[in-house]
Amino acid sequence: MPDMKLFAGNATPELAKHIANRLYTSLGDIVVGRFSDGEVNVQINENVRGEDVFIIQSTCAPTNDNLMELLVMIDAMRRASAGRITAVIPYFGYARQDRRVRSARVPITAKVVADFLSTVGVDRVLTVDLHAEQIQGFFDVPVDNVFGSPVILEDMLQQSFERPIVVSPDIGGVVRARAIAKLLNDTDMAIIDKRRQRANEAEVMNIIGDVSDRDCILVDDMIDTAGTLCKAAEALKARGAKRVFAYATHPIFSGKAVENIKNSKIDEIVVCDTIPLTPEVKALKNVRQLTLSGMLAEAIRRISNEESISAMFHY
């Protein structure tokens, strides 16, 4: 069996190190830098011929730079005759551009990225909580989409929630919220239905379910500007919620996210380390980060040993 070798770009260096530590190995010797004009420059400084190579790189902000690094690293590995190349993409950027809504003249960029990865020679993709699971069908290679929910659920079970209720921030997140509610001792669930009654009117948040005097647990796959999340927390508190907690896998935190969270009624936000936190986000007292390094390390080990990935998840 070929040896497993891990390499990392500049997107998630700490997560990559933690994954390597969990696998009792070290990251491979690779230089991912820039030429003077800003073009990506990659140099592999060890033999990878015939090896089972895993490249760890989220395509988070700066999205285009990190995506280009990943593509160039894959190409370098392919030209160096690596036996198998798996792209480990904890956060898959451009995943929200996965359809043409009402035949609008827009690209399906998630498909474009999938084509890029296939074209440069990746053999397999490992990612976490894809925004839309059907994106797996955009690829011409196998895709393993693993879930952050076991790590998130483990943290939830360690908390002292008072009369908890799981809340889906929108209709699209009901399946995720229902799964968490079932595993969280089969607790109750509420749904926030966002709608505009008429054009140019403010968005109204209708809460389906009784949240009065309860700890509300909002669950989502990602937090971007945190605007919708903060409005949801405000609506829940207005309906009598005792405390509001938010759990999400991907901490994008773009735009006015820090300002929105500072001014929000959210008691705590818990995210995973698929994207590094900026110093400004780290300074927020109500934001906490969990690591997916153990889960990703186990997934990598299973792929390398040709074992089942689905067996990691029992629900």
Automatic annotation (TrEMBL):
Predominant localisation class: cytoplasm
Pathway note: Metabolic intermediate biosynthesis; 5-phospho-alpha-D-ribose 1-diphosphate biosynthesis; 5-phospho-alpha-D-ribose 1-diphosphate from D-ribose 5-phosphate (route I): step 1/1
Binding positions for D-ribose 5-phosphate per the UniProt entry: 196, 220, 224-228
Reaction equations catalysed: D-ribose 5-phosphate + ATP = 5-phospho-alpha-D-ribose 1-diphosphate + AMP + H(+)
Compartments where found: Cytoplasm
An MF annotation (GO) of this entry: ATP binding
PROSITE patterns in UniProt: PRPP_SYNTHASE
Catalytic residues, chain numbering: 194
Residues reported to bind ATP: 37-39, 96-97
Names of required cofactors: Mg(2+)
Keywords from the UniProt entry: ATP-binding, Cytoplasm, Kinase, Magnesium, Metal-binding, Nucleotide biosynthesis, Nucleotide-binding, Transferase
EC annotation from Swiss-Prot or TrEMBL: 2.7.6.1
Family of the protein in this entry: Belongs to the ribose-phosphate pyrophosphokinase family. Class I subfamily.
Biological role stated in the UniProt entry: Involved in the biosynthesis of the central metabolite phospho-alpha-D-ribosyl-1-pyrophosphate (PRPP) via the transfer of pyrophosphoryl group from ATP to 1-hydroxyl of ribose-5-phosphate (Rib-5-P).
Self-association state and partner proteins as the record states: Homohexamer.
Entries under HAMAP family matching the protein: RibP_PPkinase_B
Name used for this protein in its record: Ribose-phosphate pyrophosphokinase
Organism taxonomic ancestry: Bacteria, Pseudomonadati, Pseudomonadota, Gammaproteobacteria, Orbales
